[in-house]
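Z., the sequence and structure:
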Amino acid sequence: MIDLEKLHEQKSRFAFFARQLMYPEKLDFHPDVWTEALTAGHPAHPSLQKYWHLMQKYSFEQIEEMYVQTFDFQKDTTLYMTFYKYEDSRERGALLVRLKQAYELFGLAIEGTELSDYLPLMCEFLYAAPWQGHEQQAASSLDLMLAVMEDGTYHLLNALEKADSPYFHLIQGLRETFKACVIQEAPGT
């Protein structure tokens, strides 16, 4: 179950992940962006620091090429989170509809042709959705959103590790941020 207060505390972090998972722009790698993102003491800090240091070894053109090769041309590293489990099945279509309804519940529309399970879009939703004050309505939608993200990023993380990709550390940091938003049950319950 999601701790909505902790999720709210991470809103700006999800905006950061959304930007890093979209097609690269030079500003995404500006030191000020990283100074804000690399908060010491945050569970994702070590992973994001490793990602930052690895990405500094590449030119911007190399980062663009790496992004395209990693996320656009490889089936096992797609950013569509339900694809790993359902590929193009009917069940995936039903889940995409449920995700789209979650966006619409908070007045957010998906622009363009992106599917509702696109990881940068999902991170952006967690940043932008005005769910505070509507916690009861939000709980099931946010639980669904994070469950899909957690499941999809598990597969993505494993594929990125096999490929020895710097993006492995970014996804690892995202997963560590998810874990920081989960209600921890007391031992023995």
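The longest helix spans residues 135-162. The chain is about 65% helix and 0% strand.

Let me know what you think.
H.
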